[in-house]
Amino acid sequence: MTQPFIAYVEVEIPEGWEIACNQIRAPKYGEWFIDPSGIHNILRASSDYHINCKYVIVRQVFRWPEWLTANYIAMDESGIWYGYAKKPSKIASSWLPQQSTPYVRLTPNTLTNFVPPECSDWAQSLRRNPNYEGNE
């Protein structure tokens, strides 16, 4: 007979990194994870790991660019990032801006030096500007 149980894991996250998901699981290709051996701090998966491999998945902390005045940013299903004046709503495969509020497509380029945060799931991509003090 098998019985489910809940386990709490305490792990030291190196500076400049943060927990990427709320479960311990097998890393997917390209994801970063904590090396449990302690030999290396962070490793990147070179392929999808076997489902029985369990690791803490992490990502680099996204630092909001000073020039980016959008209050929120989010990625759509095709991987394109947008900036929003107010918190957008999640719809089928994208984010819908609040009625009559501006939004702008953010394109990585050398002029703006926009490097989007690491994100492989558009539905989890919404980020709030840490300098935003307005209402949702």
What does this 3D model show about the protein?
- A four-stranded antiparallel sheet has the order 1-4-2-3, with no helix packed on it. It has a four-stranded antiparallel sheet with strand order 9-6-5-10, with no helix packed on it.
- The protein has two domains: 44 residues, no CATH class; 57 residues, no CATH class.
- It contains no helices and ten strands.
- The protein is mainly beta.
- A hairpin with a 7-residue loop joins strand 2 and strand 3.
- The radius of gyration is 18 Å and the shape is globular.
- 0% of the residues lie in helices and 30% in strands.
Enumerate the strands of the largest sheet in spatial order, edge to edge or round the barrel: 1-4-2-3
Rg calculated over all Cα atoms: 18 Å
Binned, the helix content reads under 10%
Helix and strand composition category:
mainly beta
Large-scale geometry: globular
Weakly predicted, low-confidence segments: none
- Integer average pLDDT: 85
What is the topological layout?
Blueprint (H helix, E strand, L loop, with lengths): L16 E9 L6 E3 L7 E3 L10 E6 L11 E4 L5 E4 L4 E3 L2 E3 L6 E4 L20 E2 L8
Antiparallel strand pairs: 1-4, 2-3, 2-4, 5-6, 5-10, 6-9, 7-8
